[in-house]
Amino acid sequence: MVPLTLAEHGALAKGLLPAAIWDFFEGGAGTEWTRRANLDAWRHHVLRPRVLVDVSAPDCGTELLGARLTAPFGVAPMAYHRLAHPEGECATARAASEAGVLLIVSIFASRTLEQIAAAAPGAPRWLQLYWLRDREALTMLARRAEQADYRALVLTVDAPKVGRRLRDLRNAFALPADLTAANLDPRLTSSAGHSAAGRSGIEEHSRQQFDPTVSWADLAWLRARTRLPLVLKGVLTAEDARLAVEHGVDALIVSNHGGRQLDGVPPALAVLPEVVDAVPAECPVLVDGGLRHGSDLATALALGARAALVGRPVLWGLAHGGADGARAVLDLLREELLDTMVLAGRPTLAALDRDALAPWPPAAAAPL
Ligand SMILES: Cc1cc2nc3c(=O)[nH]c(=O)nc-3n(C[C@H](O)[C@H](O)[C@H](O)COP(=O)(O)O)c2cc1C
Ligand SMILES: CC(C)CC(=O)C(=O)O
Q1: 129 near 107, Cβ under 8 Å?
Q2: What confidence score (pLDDT) does residue 191 get?
Q3: Which of 263, 291, 316, 354 could form a disulfide with 29 if both were Cys (CB 3.0 to 4.6 A apart)?
Q4: Which residues bind glyoxylate (predicted)?
Q5: Is 233 annotated as a binding residue?
Q6: Is the beta carbon of 107 within 6 A of some atom in ligand 2?
């Protein structure tokens, strides 16, 4: 079966992956209300199509922090791609490069930063960091990222600890013995291979390594150690967006971590407009969580996102088809976006503005 939707890519992957790995990829925190809300959020908007517009040459190409992209999206940072495919992040990097979209590599990548860069020379990629207790390790990662031509550092700020993921607890999820965080000292993450009482292996090693004391004042420390732009991932309020700009952050990713951290927070899409309105136009705002169709991407752009990120569907493609599978997912999203732009009579990204959307269901008319 050639998958015609991202959901069909998911079905293929689910049929192939061990259940505990599928659950690690798919699961959220707590009741998974936020994970489900991410998927539903798109349905609270409908497109307002315009007609009799020349749509013969739709164009969704864009530029993001100086990088040219064929479409305004990228691959969200996700740990351990080798759980999906033996080539891991090297395959994902080839897929993103061939599709012409951004790749954000996780600090918990299962291939080295240098291997990933060599798999797709010249392609736009950023490195995501968690704030580790070991600042020397952070400094080294920032340096290696610069040397291997990563174009920005993304600091994920929604994870002072890992959320309580019940699927992983029930499965006593731990990494296979041959799989490690390839860019960190193996002693830092060795506990990911064991689940401890009441904690998954992932929760165990992050509990030991994440620094929960970090605060706004610490950003200056990181800035002083890199010339790369700094992006914050995991901002969900206008207050924090304003603080980020005051602290010199170059871009924001509105995200609830795919519903994997604090269960009960709103879908990122719902708070995107308040964040966009809180920051100057020069500060690009990205969004992720639950994006499963090119028309979702159109909705995110119309609400003011400069680009969006897609997470789990890329792992689905990777799991069933390696680099080709991941590429098929990314190409499908771009084709669906272009289709949406043509059929909505909005063939440029500029035409995908707030006017392109209406709330759904429509607000009830006021009684006379
Ligand atoms: C398996 C998996 C691993 C993830 N690992 C990371 C990570 O290492 N760093 C991070 O900032 N976010 C991580 N995320 C969150 C994603 O970057 C992203 O916010 C989320 O997956 C987007 O939602 P979507 O999967 O519904 O598209 C992970 C998500 C998944 C599914
Ligand atoms: C190793 C984990 C902490 C990676 C992550 O952020 C996630 O699984 O959501």
Answers
A1: yes
A2: 63
A3: 263
A4: 165, 257, 260
A5: yes
A6: no
